[in-house]
Design goal:
Helix content is 0%, strand content 66%. It has no helices and 12 strands. The model is unreliable at 99-103 (pLDDT under 50). It has strands at 2-24, 34-59, 62-69, 72-86, 106-111, 121-132, 135-145, 158-170, 173-182, 199-212, 216-231, 241-256. With 258 residues, the chain is mainly β. Strands 1, 2, 3, 4, 5, 6, 7, 8, 9, 10, 11 and 12 form a 12-stranded antiparallel sheet that branches. A hairpin with a 3-residue loop joins β10 (199-212) and β11 (216-231).
């Protein structure tokens, strides 16, 4: 009734992004002055994620599991380019920025920007209970501890939880439904502070339907998440802004066994 195991996952992360920001500067001669900033980023990282776990089954219908894992970077590479375009020239005359590299007031090329994708230690406690051969209930609790090597912004220990149901209407047609959280690992935005990181806790629902044959299966599923919180998009200001995030994802997958 007690078993233990270990897994080793190979991870590969590829990131290509163009990030654009508009920064308000001191106006000249009463003219609004902005700095248009664009960062072009291209990087990739390789890593390993070991995970160990134990499983205990006090009864045939009930199982409890505990896992611990953490991702480690083993190599990576990348490059970036930063371009900044003003909307006023040195004399205070409005200009129309364009994308020509030579017209940027700042043009910086960076190399070796792969940077380690530091990851928290993940602790998971889960249980599954079969009320009948065709009805399963599962619940999981996740705990994430911050990695001290991550210094881009302040992070803290956070947690998530999920509960799911699976019911086989027939032996070949399982139906699934779940509820889950996606909590932020940043501190809540406090009144009177400045330059604080966004903080949004999300809640989600998922559902899915599968058809399973002797050698093949097809699954249609989706999930929806929504959350509300606060942000500070203006630097060096105590003003806060309401922030909402939501997403809808639909999956269609199929498998075939030769």
């Amino acid at each position: 009734r007690l078993s233990a195991g270990a897994s080793l996952f190979f991870t590969y992360h590829r990131e290509k992004a163009a990030r654009m920001e508009t920064i308000e500067r001191n106006p000249k001669a009463g003219q609004p002055d902005y700095l248009l900033t664009t960062l072009y980023l291209n990087r990739r990282n390789f890593g390993l994620k070991p995970k160990i776990g134990v499983l205990y089954s006090p009864y045939d219908q009930w199982s409890i599991g505990l896992t611990v894992g953490k991702q480690f970077r083993i190599s990576g590479s990348g490059d970036a380019e930063l371009r900044q375009f003003p909307t006023l020239d040195a004399a205070g005359t409005p200009v129309t920025p364009n994308v020509n590299y030579a017209d940027s007031v700042t043009a910086t090329s960076l190399q070796n920007v792969s940077s380690a994708r530091v990851a928290p230690v993940e602790l998971t406690l889960g249980q599954a209970f079969f009320f009948s051969p065709s009805f399963l209930v599962a619940a999981d609790f996740f705990l994430y501890t911050p990695d001290p090597q991550f210094t881009d912004w302040a992070v803290q220990t956070t947690w998530n939880a999920a509960v799911g149901l699976e019911w086989h209407a027939t032996p070949k047609t399982p139906l699934r439904f779940g509820l889950f959280t996606n909590n932020s690992n940043t501190a809540p935005v406090a009144e009177g502070g400045t330059d604080q990181t966004d903080h949004v806790n999300q809640y989600g629902v998922s559902t899915g339907f599968s058809f399973v044959g002797q050698q093949s299966s097809i699954t249609l599923s989706g999930n929806y998440t929504y959350g509300a919180g606060k942000s500070q998009i203006v630097g060096n200001s105590v003003a806060t802004q309401a922030l909402t995030q939501q997403s809808l994802t639909v999956y269609l997958s199929a498998s075939y066994q030769l």
